[in-house]
Write a structure and sequence with these properties.
- By secondary structure, the chain is α/β, with parallel strands linked by helices.
- It has a single domain, classed as 3-Layer(aba) Sandwich (Deoxyhypusine Synthase), CATH 3.40.910.10.
- Helices cover 48% and strands 11% of the residues.
- It is built from 15 helices and nine strands.
- The radius of gyration is 22 Å and the shape is globular.
Amino acid sequence: MKCNKQNRPCLDRHSKLKPGPISKGMTVDQVIESSMFSFNAGTFRKACELFAKNVVRKNVRIGMSLAGALVPAGIGRSCLIPMIKAGMIDWIVSTGANLYHDLHYALGYDFHEGQAVVDDEKLRDEGIIRIYDIFLDYDALLDTDSFVRETLRRERKNLPDPCSSADIHSLLGREIIKIKPKLKDESLLAVAYEAGVPIHTSSPADSSIGMNIAALMLEEERINLDTHQDINEVTSYVYDIKKKGGKSAVLLIGGGSPKNFVLQTEPHIQEVLGLPEAGHDFFIQFTDARPDTGGLSGATPSEAVSWGKIDPSALSNTIVSYGDCSLMLPFFTSYAMNKIKSRSLSRLYKKRDRMVGQLKKDFKDKA
């Protein structure tokens, strides 16, 4: 039986796979565009292209979630700092671990290449902390704890009352610049402070920074940190750009609580506040979590549509690429830096009062 071309889908609608040979001297973006077409390589290339061609635009606000402890693996210096300086990240929700470990650099401590298979009892005796295959001097923790407590004890009167986690992180970033100005470009917190990029954490108490705030409470040096204020602030970043006719993009590095905190901005607008909205417009996630286990880390953009997190008409602008974030993000960043012109910084940190005020006004007017 002969195949009737008129009765089968036309292949001409689909791009041809034309991998080219990798040659000496090729840049990362050239390798990605010439050889990564299928399976996880294909989704990774599409994520790179979507970000470069459609996301990093003047009318798109980009929120990033950052899971785990990627800063000790070098992601802060190698990827996040260049992206912030290039205007590719407008606001961040991170685990507290990334931000706490970022402080070690400013205090003169380094991370070292170690081994994943090792005698951990011996490491404990030698005063070495292990993060999988990364080694760190235990004194780094003690000195960083002292730095956090001393800074907050001295400067807490300058914090808003109540304050959000973004205020805490901004204060620490400013302090790094003051005491170690030569190291400011090596600190995620310091660079974000200078760029006006607010950094929030979804679980302030679930980190060493939170533990040190708890210690201050025992000294009667209470800091009125209100995580519900964080909810309204991150939601206002999304609501503000959408109200102006712009778009919202989410770049999700890993999963966990930071992913949910970034995505729940839309249900907060629609479900809780009852304001008209449809969902985020762009969704890019790098993760090693499977969707079939039912966890949030592996939840797909399609599932997010059912919650109002993603605009159903924007599903074509959503990509999940599976793999190790510590491996994928450097290549993603290199691609972006080669393909995209720097954007003007949006400096959302100092605009929060106005944006939250607008959110509050519209919520009250609706009622």
